[in-house]
User: Fold ATP5S synthase from Odontophorus gujanensis.
Amino acid sequence: RRFWGWLNAVFNKVDYERIQAVGPDRAASEWLLRCGALVRYRGYEKWQQDYNGLPTGPLGKYKIEAINATESCIMYRGFDYLDGLEHVSEIKLQKCIYIQDECLQRISETKNLQKSLLQLKIISCGNVTDKGVIALHKLTNLEYLYLSDLPGIRQKETTARILQQALPNLELELDLD
Assistant:
């Protein structure tokens, strides 16, 4: 168990020189795929899942539009990779054991995601609580939020009300029983 924690920390270590060298979308793609997540690029329907099959071509050509982090090992430590992403409109966090309130707060405070993120799904992430969900109120363009199987959500009515007040155009779907 200690080994896996160490390995996940290595996978999530941010390489700022790499971001500078290849750009934010390529560097974030490498991080996400290394951690077991999938990415979809703007203008493409197919999900990229193979690290060794990352597309080549001019730097900056492939812009991340969607992230599916189902059962991935992404953790807060690597979230600096999200800073430069300008086109991410949807994120799915499902069965991510390292996702916690601080991760959701970080997503909400990322300026580019405040502008671009339209859909967010958080499913079966056991370390997420009301505090983390409420932190999402800064995602002013968020149109759809799906919350399911989150045992850390203890005050779902209050949390939902706070979010709806902050984001009146938000379609909030709850499956928290």
Remarks:
- The domain at 1-175 is CATH 3.80.10.10 (Leucine-rich repeat, LRR (right-handed beta-alpha superhelix)).
